[in-house]
Design goal:
- The protein is 34% helix and 16% strand.
- It is an alpha/beta fold and 1265 residues long.
- Among the domains are: 262-402, MutS, DNA mismatch repair protein, domain I; 418-432 and 458-634, MutS, connector domain (Nucleotidyltransferase, domain 5, 2-Layer Sandwich); 638-717 and 986-1117 and 1135-1170, P-loop containing nucleotide triphosphate hydrolases (Rossmann fold, 3-Layer(aba) Sandwich); 719-838 and 934-970, no CATH class; 850-917, MutS, DNA mismatch repair protein, Chain A, domain 3 (Orthogonal Bundle); 1235-1264.
- The strands form ten sheets. Strands 13, 14, 15, 16, 17, 18 and 21 form a seven-stranded mixed β-sheet that branches. Strands 22-34-35-36-32-37-38 form a seven-stranded mixed β-sheet, with helices on both faces. A five-stranded mixed β-sheet has the order 10-9-8-11-12, sandwiched between helices.
- It starts with a strand and ends with a helix.
Length: 1265
Amino acid sequence: MVYWHYTISAAREARSSVYLLCSLLCSYDDGEVEWIDSTKEQYEIVESEAKGSDVANKKMEQEPEPEPETEPELKMEIETENKAESKQEIPTQHSPEQPHSAPEQPIIKNSPKPVKSSRKSQTSKSTDSDDAYQPNSNDDKDDDDDDEDDDIPIAKLRRFIVSDSDSDSDSDAPILSKKTPSKPAITPSVPRTPTKRPAPSISAYSSSPVSTPSKLPRPSSTPKSTPKRQRTSEAGLDDEKLSEKKGAVILNAGEHAHDNTEWMIHPRDKYKHSPSDPKYDPTSLFVPSDYLRGCTNGMKQWWAVKQQAFDCVLLMKVGKFYETYHMDADIVVKVCDLVYMKGETAHAGFPEAAYSKFSNQLVNANYRVARVEQTETPQQMKERNAVSEKKALVRREVCSIITPGVAGHGTVDKIYNQKDHRILCSIVEERKDESPEEEDLGKDEEKGKKMVQGGKNAAVVIGLCIVDTVFGDFYLGQFIDDDQRTALRTQLLRFLPTEFILHKNALHSRTIQLLRRECPSAMLSFVDPQSSFEPQHLLRLVKQNNLFDTDDDSMPKGEWPDLLEMIVKDREHPEPAFSQVLSALYLSSAYLHRCCVARLLMSQHKFYLIDNIDRERDQLVPFISNQLEEVPTQSNMILDAITLRNLDILPDPSNPSTNSLFQYIDHTVTPFGKRLLKEWLCKPLYQIDAINKRLDAVEELISKTHISQLITTSFKGIVDVDRLLSRLHDYCQSVILKAHPDNRAQYYEDKKYNTRKIKDFVQLIEVMKQILKTFKSVSESFSSEILRSLFTISSLDSSSSATNKLEFPDMTSVLDFFDHSFNHEVAIEQGIIMPKPGMDPELDKISMDLQSTQRNLENYLEEIRNRFHCQKIEYFGSNKDRFQLQFPESVCQSLGAMPKEFLLKSRKKGFKRFWTPYIQEQFARLQVLEDKKQTALKNCTATVFTKFYQHYDHWKQMVNCVATLDVLQSLAVASSVGDNRGDCARPLFVERGRGASAVLELQNSRHPCVINTFSHGDFIANDISLGGSAASCKIITGPNMGGKSTLLRQVAVSIILAQIGCFVPASYMRLSPVDRIFTRIGAQDRILSNQSTFYVELIETSLILSNCTEDSFLIIDELGRGTSTYDGSAIVYAVLKYLSHIKKCRLLFSTHYNFIITSFVNDPSISTGYMSYLLEQVNGQDRVTFLYKLVEGVCPESFGLNVARLSMIPESVLSRAKEVADMFNINLNLDSVTVKYFMMKHLQTKLKDENIREEDLHDFLTFVS
């Protein structure tokens, strides 16, 4: 709703008449348009006799509306640092459409009562969101009549009845003091020229930080409506240079003042470096001092923030609106589809309630957004200025910075409007160049594990810190990586960072190029290159800001996360060996501290180790294992980034419609179950015992369909409990982080935000009750160890606090306490948690005192009624004007004169209203108690949230149990339904015996993600046998598009399915566990890294040769095609020989180099096979039909011309290609020994037929050979 409130800002008294400024204040809610004009009265303010008295800024009485608890007064004094300005006329804001004139005694008529408007707004084209803000500067409304029954508040100024021809003699009017002579009212039609006198200090809100001429608009008896977008400005953000002068127009982008200012067009950082300078700091801005001298204090305040946050779009709170200026306004107008305000200064904004919508639009467009809030009320500002010679503006502070990698955790942020994914990543690396090693990788297995670059072994130590800023999870790792950053690329693919925090001195330029290539949509945020990032800075940052502690007295202090305790001795001396990971953590922590969320996230102590793809190269995990006295063992199969991409394991973020293995097995019904399934898929199990436990659970769920149905029906559509728990931690901010600036921010929609918090909290309680009820409803026994553990409800005392343990805690007592401690419906309606009596003794005492004061006022009213013998006397008023004794006019006339203690406050036709000293005393006490109660209730709400969150470990255990059960039922569905093309089989795992080869057997195997063949036929199943009695390596040939690559991939995918605990699409599968899958598929170059297609092939092959073991599984597709036939075939021969005889791993190798396969025909470790086909003659042309069935043997041809025909290559081109191919085949065959022998024998026979002498024939054949 858009509400319009006309408020009256009274000016300070001067020697002449006091001018009254009618300013417009917009309140925004939910996008519907409604016009509310609270009163329709006519009154005039006259000069008070008391010299130097301040005139209070009063609101006209309006429709009842709940006031937000933290809402500041809607009036603010505009003070400047220059004391001389106070002697000059202070310009005021007004609509540029109103005439510039200043009546001595303005008469103001108020607008009609609320009328709904059907007009559509024009500023924002997007109207779908609840937060859509759509101001329209052309919306006008005529106010033609007055309401005689409305009430007139009387301020501290004395008033008199206006005698105007348009006014009704019976209408209400303020009471005039007998000592003040009546003055004639100013007729609107008569222009007045103001005398030159010092103007009073006028507080007004405006639509932009500009000032206008000091003349006030001359009000008319029927005032014109003011444009909707015009609103109040505060704290001196008005600037004469940026003023909306008379006749100002809305300028387009590129036409504003900053577009023609040299230092804004070519900005420099605080060191005066240009953007092209390597030392340029993108976070800061140099603002010339001479420019700042010409700005008002308000704009100086804006520039002070902008200087330190040049890389952010500043949303500065002014009144109820977030305002943007200069270059930031250009961005907001473009991205959010808003319009500029009038004037030379680029200026745009939107109301507070639309913050979540527009801020997320900016972040999704890869901008950082800094939210600057007013963190004190005008009254607090006055009190601060009263003890200071230098007059200051209202205080504003940066309360949050949200970015593509930093989620919003503030009061105004909506978590459900944000991306599901906000991952921050910082990387620090240190290169280590080793001396050349021996060329034969087989001679030294350990040295051979290092990658090869240009004939030299090279390695790089990488420190990695990845932060999930939605949940507050920190992942740390340090490992040795190869020149291609294989381990780093794998982690990037697993976590998919949305923002990188980089220091130019901490990374190689090639690594930065890799980040741009691997994560093209992520934001790269560079810190000040002249800043340091040593581990000591991390310790200093933690200690200075207590990042691991909270302000909650019930929580322990001084504790560090266990992981950091191990790598930082005595919290003073970081381990030198882990300087990279600690430096990376510092970069992330400093960035989060800048965004005002470091302490909020880090105080949760959720720090975890990154599971690197190679434990032998990991530096951090072995150290931690030694500290914990654990024996490190491989528990998961390794899938690197190359394999994850080549096998289409995860959906492609750039093309979600692409089929992937994740989509095949994803039948989860909860968001946290979906996240766990992705984790399982990226890290399949390796230990047979763990795999069989999962398979047992899946098999039992397949047989007990009612359990799977219960899981689906109970948890389908359930809210993301993980995310709600994270938000609940944010809601505890006022308790755990009392000094956070967001707790001091003045919000005008506070009730709305509180209601949102309580709704989330109540929803969380209901979901937890639903989960607990579902698990308790299952009473049958299970043979599976995992299912038994999941459905065994353990008491809260005996339950372990380890969040990763599959143990369901009984939280019944805790849930009952929070379920009955307050009325949920009332709390949601009122936007605050009201504890039931006896729950909070302090609140109970305040409530009792409040009730006592209210009874005193009610008893006093009864005494007044009895005293004046009139039961019609009653209290009147709202907010700060409550408890006015309203007397009928007849009673006052009968008395002649009211008693001295009755102070006239206001009047209405037929009534007069008074205050007495007793009412003032009791009302003042009542207000104090109400403030105390409101504060206590606010603290009580946060305290309730905090008490609930103190059980986080147990709530997280419940979520993990639900997620595990959800993933198991998803695997059960995938195992039973499969791909709808055949049965799925439970894989049988066998240990690889010592000295024996690993086994892999598949019968009737199908690729789960490939439904049809190229010709839209049914998918053809195939058998594979490697290891054991069969050869461990198999070379596969066949025609192009014959299904070789699909066969390779389907075998690898089946292995992954088996080791995550899922049945596979086959009739039978037996295998030894695979420790790592390697893939060399496809061809691509890396132009930015100066790497050709062939070089990329060899680099990936080098990774395979160096890291594979006897337990690995390899698929290599058409190696060597990026170079000449002879070089490629030589490499293929050497690689096959090395893998089959030295590494002895399981391998599927496809190639078109058929003529080299004869070298391995008699090799027992290598078998051959080809994809069968049918060759026919159709209309004189060869026609190949693909059969997609693997058979033993070697394919003689590749039939590339057949693929060319399918690709619609012209027949003339194909005919010529056939001729050339035949010539190539003849020439190639002529070089073979067999063909030469055949030709020699044929020539000898021919020559004998010619009766040539035997001696001459011998000499000739010798010469030819």
